[in-house]
Write a structure and sequence with these properties.
Layout: H1 9-35, H2 54-61, H3 64-70, H4 82-91, H5 97-109, H6 113-125, H7 131-139, H8 143-154, H9 156-163, H10 178-194, H11 200-217, H12 221-236, H13 241-256, H14 261-264
Helix pairs in contact: 3-13, 4-10, 5-10, 6-7, 6-8, 10-11, 10-12, 12-13
Length: 268
């Protein structure tokens, strides 16, 4: 405290002001940050320049929960901007036409359905002592397959989605993952188009395929949404848990908010 004893009178004034300013920031601004909601409220942004028809808007809406996490427009093929989405392109190795089409063909032909359909049927029909051999024959040494087996056989995903109010019955698991695969196809087509990896015509062809996949497997936004969020949980829970929790929070708004595309665009 000796360092303050030789201050001139105005030094004490400056010190007092500094302490008051710090206290204001700590207690006022800090409190606001503390009281800030954990998750953002969905905004469902729209571009005033969009002139897409209802059929195309329906297709884009398949990706709404993740699109809303990004804060992207809900009514444009363009997704954010090329600089923003570059890390996503690189992370999924779709920053080249070859990389994009390899992944897209996988999601079209097999997707996460390949894992889920086989593993869920195996768990239901085969004795546990056969699982290792069957998994090896089907998937070889595949980390994703092993993760799916672990969480599906333990019931971890089912219980978590029921606790969140997303699933109601155990039978909701039977909806499968076609909704998730369809959503991923739509989102990655939008992102690849924005990054100049594919043309507009190519993007819409992929999105049309994804739309047919969704329509062939579901008869409502609710069933499609359950499929989407189950696939998202299988892929992201644990490894990217914060992201998973945020998208689940957004998903409930997408499902229930009257201004959401899922409540303003009818399922055909």
């Amino acid at each position: 405290m000796q360092m303050f004893e030789n201050l001139p009178w105005y030094g004490y004034v400056i010190l007092a002001l500094a302490i008051a300013s710090y206290a204001y920031k700590y207690f006022n601004i800090g409190k606001k940050e503390y009281d800030k909601p954990d998750f953002e409220k969905a905004k469902f942004k729209k571009s005033s320049e969009s002139n897409l028809g209802l059929d195309k808007l329906f297709s884009l809406a398949l990706y709404t929960p993740i699109s809303e996490w990004w804060g992207a427009n809900t009514n444009t093929l363009t997704f954010m901007d090329s600089k923003t989405i570059q890390p996503y392109l690189e992370g999924w190795s779709i920053d080249t036409p070859t990389g994009y089409w390899n992944l897209t063909e996988y999601f079209m032909k097999d997707g996460r359905r390949w894992y889920f359909d086989y593993i869920s049927k195996m768990i239901a029909t085969e004795p546990k002592e056969k699982w290792d051999d069957l998994m090896g024959q089907k998937f070889g040494n595949n980390d994703r397959a092993q993760k799916y087996l672990k969480v599906l056989s333990s019931g971890e995903i089912l219980q978590d989605l029921k606790q969140k109010g997303i699933f109601t019955f155990d039978s909701d698991m039977e909806l499968g993952l076609a909704g998730y695969d369809a959503a991923m196809l739509v989102g990655q087509a939008r992102i690849a188009f924005t990054g100049n990896i594919i043309s507009e015509e190519e993007a819409w062809k992929v999105i049309d395929f994804a739309t047919k996949l969704a329509l062939d497997n579901f008869s409502s936004w609710e069933d499609f949404g359950k499929s989407f969020v189950m696939g998202f949980a299988l892929d992201m829970k644990g490894s990217y848990d914060t992201y998973y929790q945020e998208v689940c929070h957004i998903y409930m708004q997408v499902l229930n908010d009257k201004t959401s595309p899922w409540n303003t665009i009818n399922w055909p």
